[in-house]
Amino acid sequence: MPRVNWVLLAGVIIATVGFGSSSALAGAYGIAVTLTMMITTVLAYFVVRDGWKLPAPLAIGATAVFLAVDALLVAGCGIKLLDGGWFPLALGLLLFLLMSTWWFGRARLLEGIRKDGLELQPFIDALQPQALQRVDRTAVYPVADASTVPQALLHNLKHNQVLHQRNVIVTVVFESEPWVPMERRVEVHPLGHGFWRVTLHFGFMNTPDVPKALSLAASHGLQVPLFECSYFLSRETVVPARGTGLSQWRERLFAAMSRNAGGVVEFFRLPDNAVVELGTRVQI
Question: Is the pLDDT of residue 47 over 70?
Protein backbone atom coordinates (compact mmCIF):
# COMPACT_ATOMS: atom_id res chain seq x y z
CA MET A 1 0.00 0.00 0.00
CA PRO A 2 2.77 2.58 0.62
CA ARG A 3 3.99 2.03 -2.95
CA VAL A 4 0.46 2.44 -4.28
CA ASN A 5 0.07 5.69 -2.35
CA TRP A 6 3.29 7.07 -3.83
CA VAL A 7 2.14 6.08 -7.34
CA LEU A 8 -1.21 7.83 -6.71
CA LEU A 9 0.62 10.94 -5.51
CA ALA A 10 2.79 10.97 -8.63
CA GLY A 11 -0.28 10.47 -10.84
CA VAL A 12 -2.15 13.37 -9.20
CA ILE A 13 0.83 15.70 -9.59
CA ILE A 14 1.36 14.72 -13.24
CA ALA A 15 -2.35 15.15 -14.04
CA THR A 16 -2.53 18.55 -12.34
CA VAL A 17 0.61 19.82 -14.04
CA GLY A 18 -0.48 18.40 -17.39
CA PHE A 19 -3.91 20.04 -17.33
CA GLY A 20 -2.50 23.29 -15.94
CA SER A 21 -5.22 24.04 -13.39
CA SER A 22 -7.98 22.46 -11.35
CA SER A 23 -10.64 24.15 -13.52
CA ALA A 24 -9.18 22.45 -16.59
CA LEU A 25 -9.64 19.13 -14.78
CA ALA A 26 -13.39 19.73 -14.35
CA GLY A 27 -14.33 17.64 -17.40
CA ALA A 28 -12.19 14.71 -16.32
CA TYR A 29 -13.47 14.97 -12.75
CA GLY A 30 -17.12 15.06 -13.80
CA ILE A 31 -16.95 11.95 -15.97
CA ALA A 32 -14.88 10.11 -13.37
CA VAL A 33 -17.36 10.83 -10.57
CA THR A 34 -20.55 10.11 -12.54
CA LEU A 35 -19.16 6.88 -13.99
CA THR A 36 -18.12 5.81 -10.50
CA MET A 37 -21.67 6.43 -9.30
CA MET A 38 -23.08 4.37 -12.19
CA ILE A 39 -20.69 1.48 -11.56
CA THR A 40 -21.54 1.56 -7.85
CA THR A 41 -25.25 1.32 -8.68
CA VAL A 42 -24.64 -1.68 -10.96
CA LEU A 43 -22.62 -3.38 -8.23
CA ALA A 44 -25.40 -2.62 -5.74
CA TYR A 45 -27.74 -4.76 -7.87
CA PHE A 46 -25.46 -7.77 -7.46
CA VAL A 47 -25.21 -7.15 -3.72
CA VAL A 48 -29.01 -7.09 -3.40
CA ARG A 49 -29.50 -10.05 -5.74
CA ASP A 50 -26.58 -12.35 -4.95
CA GLY A 51 -25.43 -11.13 -1.55
CA TRP A 52 -28.80 -10.57 0.13
CA LYS A 53 -30.54 -13.27 -1.98
CA LEU A 54 -33.55 -11.03 -2.69
CA PRO A 55 -35.81 -11.63 -5.73
CA ALA A 56 -34.67 -10.23 -9.07
CA PRO A 57 -37.69 -7.87 -9.51
CA LEU A 58 -36.97 -6.32 -6.11
CA ALA A 59 -33.25 -5.96 -6.92
CA ILE A 60 -34.04 -4.33 -10.27
CA GLY A 61 -36.59 -2.00 -8.71
CA ALA A 62 -34.16 -0.98 -5.96
CA THR A 63 -31.45 0.05 -8.43
CA ALA A 64 -33.25 1.03 -11.67
CA VAL A 65 -34.17 4.54 -10.47
CA PHE A 66 -30.65 5.31 -9.32
CA LEU A 67 -29.22 3.85 -12.52
CA ALA A 68 -31.47 6.10 -14.63
CA VAL A 69 -30.33 9.19 -12.70
CA ASP A 70 -26.68 8.14 -13.02
CA ALA A 71 -27.11 7.61 -16.77
CA LEU A 72 -28.47 11.16 -17.15
CA LEU A 73 -25.51 12.55 -15.21
CA VAL A 74 -23.03 10.60 -17.36
CA ALA A 75 -24.75 11.81 -20.54
CA GLY A 76 -24.62 15.38 -19.26
CA CYS A 77 -20.89 15.13 -18.65
CA GLY A 78 -20.37 13.48 -22.05
CA ILE A 79 -20.11 16.90 -23.73
CA LYS A 80 -16.82 17.35 -21.85
CA LEU A 81 -15.29 14.25 -23.45
CA LEU A 82 -12.85 16.20 -25.59
CA ASP A 83 -12.21 18.78 -22.84
CA GLY A 84 -10.42 16.41 -20.48
CA GLY A 85 -13.14 13.78 -20.14
CA TRP A 86 -11.02 11.35 -22.14
CA PHE A 87 -8.39 11.21 -19.39
CA PRO A 88 -10.21 9.01 -16.80
CA LEU A 89 -11.51 6.80 -19.62
CA ALA A 90 -7.99 6.29 -20.99
CA LEU A 91 -6.63 5.69 -17.49
CA GLY A 92 -9.39 3.18 -16.71
CA LEU A 93 -8.77 1.39 -20.02
CA LEU A 94 -5.07 1.14 -19.21
CA LEU A 95 -5.76 -0.31 -15.75
CA PHE A 96 -8.29 -2.74 -17.20
CA LEU A 97 -5.72 -3.85 -19.78
CA LEU A 98 -3.11 -4.49 -17.10
CA MET A 99 -5.50 -6.31 -14.75
CA SER A 100 -7.06 -8.46 -17.48
CA THR A 101 -3.61 -9.33 -18.84
CA TRP A 102 -2.54 -10.44 -15.38
CA TRP A 103 -5.74 -12.48 -14.91
CA PHE A 104 -5.53 -14.24 -18.28
CA GLY A 105 -1.77 -14.69 -17.92
CA ARG A 106 -2.09 -16.33 -14.49
CA ALA A 107 -4.80 -18.63 -15.83
CA ARG A 108 -2.53 -19.65 -18.74
CA LEU A 109 0.40 -20.09 -16.38
CA LEU A 110 -1.52 -22.41 -14.04
CA GLU A 111 -2.90 -24.28 -17.03
CA GLY A 112 0.63 -24.80 -18.38
CA ILE A 113 1.88 -26.03 -14.99
CA ARG A 114 -1.09 -28.38 -14.69
CA LYS A 115 -0.64 -29.70 -18.23
CA ASP A 116 3.07 -30.42 -17.80
CA GLY A 117 2.79 -31.52 -14.17
CA LEU A 118 2.07 -34.80 -12.44
CA GLU A 119 -1.02 -35.68 -10.44
CA LEU A 120 -0.13 -35.48 -6.76
CA GLN A 121 -1.89 -38.53 -5.28
CA PRO A 122 -0.77 -41.06 -7.96
CA PHE A 123 2.77 -39.68 -7.61
CA ILE A 124 2.72 -40.24 -3.83
CA ASP A 125 1.23 -43.73 -4.19
CA ALA A 126 3.99 -44.69 -6.66
CA LEU A 127 6.81 -43.52 -4.37
CA GLN A 128 9.09 -46.05 -2.78
CA PRO A 129 10.24 -44.20 0.35
CA GLN A 130 12.66 -46.94 1.37
CA ALA A 131 14.58 -46.39 -1.89
CA LEU A 132 15.04 -42.67 -1.18
CA GLN A 133 17.29 -40.91 1.26
CA ARG A 134 15.00 -39.30 3.87
CA VAL A 135 15.89 -36.13 5.77
CA ASP A 136 14.45 -35.85 9.26
CA ARG A 137 13.01 -32.38 8.68
CA THR A 138 9.79 -30.83 7.40
CA ALA A 139 9.48 -29.42 3.89
CA VAL A 140 6.65 -26.98 3.19
CA TYR A 141 5.62 -26.40 -0.43
CA PRO A 142 3.27 -23.41 -0.90
CA VAL A 143 1.38 -23.93 -4.18
CA ALA A 144 -1.59 -22.46 -6.00
CA ASP A 145 -2.79 -25.85 -7.31
CA ALA A 146 -2.67 -28.65 -4.76
CA SER A 147 -3.73 -31.34 -7.25
CA THR A 148 -0.32 -31.51 -8.98
CA VAL A 149 3.17 -32.19 -7.69
CA PRO A 150 4.97 -28.93 -6.81
CA GLN A 151 7.73 -28.12 -9.26
CA ALA A 152 10.04 -27.35 -6.34
CA LEU A 153 9.50 -30.90 -5.01
CA LEU A 154 10.40 -32.41 -8.38
CA HIS A 155 13.53 -30.27 -8.61
CA ASN A 156 14.48 -31.21 -5.05
CA LEU A 157 14.20 -34.91 -5.88
CA LYS A 158 16.02 -34.53 -9.19
CA HIS A 159 18.97 -32.40 -8.07
CA ASN A 160 19.35 -33.20 -4.35
CA GLN A 161 17.99 -36.78 -4.55
CA VAL A 162 16.49 -36.55 -1.07
CA LEU A 163 12.98 -36.59 0.34
CA HIS A 164 12.07 -34.95 3.62
CA GLN A 165 10.47 -36.99 6.35
CA ARG A 166 7.42 -34.72 6.38
CA ASN A 167 6.22 -32.97 3.22
CA VAL A 168 3.43 -30.43 3.56
CA ILE A 169 1.64 -29.16 0.43
CA VAL A 170 0.12 -25.82 1.43
CA THR A 171 -2.60 -23.91 -0.39
CA VAL A 172 -3.83 -20.50 0.79
CA VAL A 173 -7.49 -19.63 0.16
CA PHE A 174 -8.83 -16.10 0.65
CA GLU A 175 -12.50 -16.10 1.56
CA SER A 176 -15.06 -13.43 0.63
CA GLU A 177 -15.47 -12.48 4.29
CA PRO A 178 -13.27 -10.06 6.25
CA TRP A 179 -12.26 -12.37 9.11
CA VAL A 180 -11.92 -16.14 9.30
CA PRO A 181 -11.84 -17.45 12.90
CA MET A 182 -8.97 -19.62 14.07
CA GLU A 183 -11.14 -22.73 14.33
CA ARG A 184 -11.70 -22.57 10.54
CA ARG A 185 -8.17 -21.49 9.68
CA VAL A 186 -6.62 -24.83 8.77
CA GLU A 187 -7.64 -28.08 7.07
CA VAL A 188 -5.29 -31.08 7.12
CA HIS A 189 -5.57 -34.14 4.87
CA PRO A 190 -2.96 -36.96 5.19
CA LEU A 191 -1.89 -38.34 1.81
CA GLY A 192 0.44 -41.15 2.91
CA HIS A 193 4.22 -41.72 2.74
CA GLY A 194 4.86 -38.64 4.87
CA PHE A 195 2.78 -36.23 2.77
CA TRP A 196 0.00 -33.93 3.93
CA ARG A 197 -2.21 -31.48 2.09
CA VAL A 198 -2.95 -28.37 4.17
CA THR A 199 -5.44 -25.68 3.19
CA LEU A 200 -5.22 -22.36 5.03
CA HIS A 201 -8.24 -20.04 5.03
CA PHE A 202 -7.87 -16.28 5.48
CA GLY A 203 -10.34 -13.45 5.28
CA PHE A 204 -9.50 -10.48 3.12
CA MET A 205 -8.77 -8.45 6.28
CA ASN A 206 -6.63 -11.17 7.91
CA THR A 207 -2.86 -11.01 7.81
CA PRO A 208 -1.78 -14.12 5.84
CA ASP A 209 0.85 -15.36 8.30
CA VAL A 210 1.51 -18.88 7.01
CA PRO A 211 4.00 -20.07 9.68
CA LYS A 212 1.63 -18.99 12.46
CA ALA A 213 -1.32 -20.67 10.73
CA LEU A 214 0.67 -23.90 10.24
CA SER A 215 1.26 -24.09 13.99
CA LEU A 216 -2.49 -24.72 14.32
CA ALA A 217 -2.07 -27.98 12.40
CA ALA A 218 -0.79 -29.59 15.61
CA SER A 219 -4.39 -30.00 16.76
CA HIS A 220 -4.98 -32.04 13.57
CA GLY A 221 -2.07 -34.40 14.22
CA LEU A 222 0.54 -32.63 12.08
CA GLN A 223 3.54 -31.03 13.78
CA VAL A 224 5.27 -28.30 11.77
CA PRO A 225 8.23 -27.24 13.93
CA LEU A 226 9.09 -23.60 13.32
CA PHE A 227 12.88 -24.04 13.43
CA GLU A 228 13.03 -27.45 11.72
CA CYS A 229 11.24 -26.80 8.46
CA SER A 230 12.18 -25.33 5.10
CA TYR A 231 9.90 -23.55 2.66
CA PHE A 232 10.47 -24.58 -0.95
CA LEU A 233 9.09 -22.11 -3.49
CA SER A 234 8.70 -22.58 -7.23
CA ARG A 235 9.89 -19.47 -9.06
CA GLU A 236 8.24 -19.56 -12.49
CA THR A 237 9.98 -17.83 -15.39
CA VAL A 238 7.36 -17.02 -18.01
CA VAL A 239 8.40 -17.77 -21.59
CA PRO A 240 6.07 -16.27 -24.25
CA ALA A 241 5.07 -18.78 -26.94
CA ARG A 242 3.00 -18.45 -30.08
CA GLY A 243 -0.45 -19.94 -30.51
CA THR A 244 -1.40 -20.16 -26.82
CA GLY A 245 -4.44 -17.89 -26.83
CA LEU A 246 -2.86 -14.56 -25.85
CA SER A 247 -1.42 -12.13 -28.37
CA GLN A 248 2.35 -11.86 -28.42
CA TRP A 249 2.47 -8.37 -26.96
CA ARG A 250 0.19 -9.35 -24.06
CA GLU A 251 2.35 -12.38 -23.33
CA ARG A 252 5.40 -10.11 -23.20
CA LEU A 253 3.50 -7.70 -20.95
CA PHE A 254 2.50 -10.50 -18.58
CA ALA A 255 6.08 -11.81 -18.52
CA ALA A 256 7.30 -8.34 -17.51
CA MET A 257 4.58 -8.02 -14.86
CA SER A 258 5.42 -11.47 -13.51
CA ARG A 259 9.11 -10.57 -13.19
CA ASN A 260 8.27 -7.44 -11.21
CA ALA A 261 5.48 -8.90 -9.07
CA GLY A 262 5.86 -8.89 -5.31
CA GLY A 263 7.27 -12.01 -3.73
CA VAL A 264 5.27 -14.45 -1.64
CA VAL A 265 7.98 -14.50 1.05
CA GLU A 266 7.03 -11.11 2.44
CA PHE A 267 3.32 -11.49 1.72
CA PHE A 268 2.98 -14.81 3.56
CA ARG A 269 5.41 -13.80 6.35
CA LEU A 270 7.83 -16.63 5.59
CA PRO A 271 11.15 -16.59 7.48
CA ASP A 272 13.93 -15.41 5.15
CA ASN A 273 16.49 -17.87 6.49
CA ALA A 274 14.24 -20.89 5.83
CA VAL A 275 13.21 -20.24 2.22
CA VAL A 276 14.64 -22.10 -0.78
CA GLU A 277 13.59 -20.94 -4.26
CA LEU A 278 13.87 -23.30 -7.23
CA GLY A 279 13.20 -21.94 -10.71
CA THR A 280 11.30 -23.42 -13.61
CA ARG A 281 10.47 -22.13 -17.10
CA VAL A 282 6.83 -22.22 -18.15
CA GLN A 283 5.53 -21.42 -21.63
CA ILE A 284 2.24 -19.55 -21.96
Answer: yes
